[in-house]
Design a protein that fits this description.
- This protein has one domain.
- Helices cover 78% and strands 0% of the residues.
- It is built from 9 helices and no strands.
């Protein structure tokens, strides 16, 4: 079959769901569930909207938007922590949760690219690293689960994409184990810096599409 971006997204979703299930086991109840309830209404609407608009925007256009958001978020956070250290900790709420959930749902549907948007909601809360990771896992478990019926209905997931997903399924436990191992060994402050760094680098990559 012809293999393009749409098929790649279809192949990835079952793998992401498998990774979510394994990660939930390792981080069970190490989350702040209220964050899911703040984000969930926007996520549902975002996924439904993204499914309707799937072919309206090019992958390149969406990558630039997501990448710009990621870079600006990291720069804002660094400036705030440097200049405005006395500000109180960010308190999540339903209004901001809906906005971030909506953006996360749309970007996740288009390109599984909701990480920077979810980080923008979670990182300012300054969770311990395991709570941050567990909350992220919980949010993406729900988000990826919500996408499944939309992807099946739109023909993004097919028998062919499921076959390709099965070929790579064995790598998922190894990836999850490596992530858990690293999480337990990286110091708290270094962990936060690495989250910022990878969010920033992801944004730059999405904007400029550097070739390896």
């Amino acid at each position: 079959m012809a293999f393009g971006p749409t098929q790649a997204i279809g192949v990835l979703l079952p793998l992401l769901c498998a990774g979510d299930a394994l990660s939930l086991y390792h981080y069970w109840r190490k989350w702040r569930v209220e964050n899911l309830w703040f984000l969930l209404p926007g996520m549902v609407i975002g996924v439904a909207t993204g499914a309707q608009l799937f072919n309206r925007f090019s992958a390149r256009e969406l990558n630039v938007i997501i990448g710009t958001m990621a870079v600006l978020f990291v720069l804002y956070q660094l400036a705030k922590e440097t200049i405005f250290k006395k500000l109180t900790r960010f308190v999540p709420n339903h209004r901001l949760g809906f906005i971030c959930g909506l953006g996360a749902g749309v970007t996740s549907t288009f390109a599984h690219g909701a990480g920077p948007v979810v980080n923008a909601f979670l990182i300012p809360q300054r969770f311990p690293k395991e709570i941050y990771t567990g909350t992220t896992v919980l949010v993406f478990t729900w988000m990826n689960g919500i996408k499944i019926p939309f992807f099946l209905n739109s023909g993004i997931i097919t028998q062919q994409t499921l076959y390709l997903s099965l070929l790579y399924l064995g790598l998922i436990p190894l990836g999850v184990w490596a992530g858990v191992w690293l999480n337990r060994r990286i110091p708290e402050k270094l962990f936060v810096k690495l989250v910022y760094l990878f969010t920033f680098l992801t944004g730059i990559q999405l904007i400029f599409e550097f070739k390896l």
